[in-house]
Write a structure and sequence with these properties.
This protein has helices at about 20-30, 50-65, 80-90, 105-115, 230-235, 245-260, 265-285, 310-320, 345-365; strands spanning about 10, 70-80, 100-105, 120-125, 150-155, 155, 160, 175, 195-200, 210-215, 300-305, 325, 335-340. By secondary structure, it is α/β, with parallel strands linked by helices. The structure holds pyridoxal-5'-phosphate (PLP).
């Protein structure tokens, strides 16, 4: 059985998912008495000077790591991904009430459906007919010039694809869900109107989305929009309009410090590419396992694979679990297998998985 320090298994969960061991150890050490404050972060007033510093440092380190330009606000908003599906149209679908969506999987589709409640949300491209195994290549002319925004999901957690390019939308602000890719590789923030991500995939425990928004997109909500769902209220109050998700912000802050300590996102990106390549290379060489996704669109974070036989897939997932390789089942909507290999998955986890896959292949030829 594969085991790590503290008898920890290798956890390939798509979310909530692994956090760096160094961060968990720091959180554990801080738990009863955070840096001499005499309190746990869980018990702290969000208006205290200690917590204010935690939140400010988290934002500053995030800005530094992602090289976020000064004309962007960083917001920590409760509610995760689905709240963003609604907040985006509520805040941006305000002029022509048109928005163009590229449908690359479950999450993009859900966001699109949500936006239809508020205006003319149009699917301008989709790979659904091929079970989302690739990502459409769109051009500027494919977007409606008068759309209030265009929307994409950069990394498709369930189907294991990613945009390997950032669409040119001209003057139409581009909104992107980067939940499952957050800080896994370098990205040019200035290409986006909004870049948001749920915390629980690559950053922190569940309960929060990080929203990076260009300032000129703030303050456009209709008056009847609930106060909490207006990005401007969060921007004007440094994400402390109400009690923020303190614990999640704190852990995210520790993850950002950890990323800085290893050399930043560029270093993380190299490690992620190496990990993903190892796993895909093995799958491509295997006679039993296949990756159904178009090679150029393969995700670095969520590696989807199948044997072609659903019963054998189930057997694989069950036996892997016995060996300490857990959460390898594909999303309940598509079956097969999925190894989510986020930032915090060590390379040894990939090595163990490949070793186990080879053994399974030999036994099940
Ligand atoms: C998980 C996920 C979501 C949904 O997030 P919730 O916090 O569960 O609402 C949305 N988009 C992507 C890309 C995801 O991976």
């Amino acid at each position: 059985m594969y085991k790590q320090k503290y008898d920890r298994v290798y956890n390939f969960s798509a979310g909530p998912s692994v956090l760096p061991l160094e961060v968990l150890e720091k959180v554990q050490a801080d738990l009863l008495n955070y840096e001499g404050s005499g309190q746990s972060v869980m018990e702290m007033s969000h208006r205290s000077k200690e917590f204010k510093k935690i939140a400010e440092d988290a934002e500053a380190n995030l800005r530094e790591l992602m090289e976020i330009p000064d004309n962007y606000k960083v917001l920590f908003v409760q509610g995760g991904g689905h709240v963003q599906f609604a907040m985006v149209p509520l805040n941006l679908m305000v002029n022509s009430k048109k928005a163009d969506y590229i449908i690359t999987g479950t999450w993009a589709k859900k966001a699109w459906k949500e936006a239809q409640k508020f205006g003319d949300a149009k699917a301008i491209a989709s790979s659904e007919e091929d079970k989302f195994t690739w990502v459409p290549k769109v051009k500027k002319e494919d977007f409606r010039e008068d759309a209030d925004y265009a929307y994409i999901c950069l990394n498709n957690t369930i189907y294991g694809t990613r945009f390997n390019y950032i669409p040119d939308t001209g003057d139409v602000p581009l909104v992107a869900d980067w939940s499952s890719g957050w800080m896994s590789e370098k990205i040019d923030v200035s290409k986006f109107g909004i870049l948001w991500g749920g915390a629980q995939k690559n950053v922190a425990p569940a309960g929060m989305a990080i929203v990076v928004i260009r300032e000129d997109l703030l303050g456009k909500c209709a008056p009847e929009v609930p106060t909490y769902l207006d990005y401007k209220i969060h921007a004007d109050n440094d994400s402390m309009y109400n009690t923020p998700p303190c614990w999640t912000i704190y852990v995210a802050g520790e993850v950002f410090k950890y990323l800085k300590s290893i050399g930043g996102i560029g270093v993380m990106e190299e490690m992620n590419k190496k990990k993903a390549k190892k796993l895909y290379d093995y799958i491509d060489s295997s006679e039993l396992f296949k990756a159904p996704v178009a090679v150029e669109d393969r995700s670095l974070m969520n590696v989807v694979f199948v044997t072609g036989d659903p019963d054998l897939d189930k057997k694989f997932v069950a036996e892997a679990r016995e060996e300490g390789l857990i959460n390898l089942a594909g999303h309940r909507s598509i079956g097969g297998m999925r190894a989510s290999i986020y930032n915090a998955m060590p390379e040894e986890g990939i090595d163990c998985l490949i070793e186990f896959m080879k053994k399974f292949e030999a036994e099940n030829k």
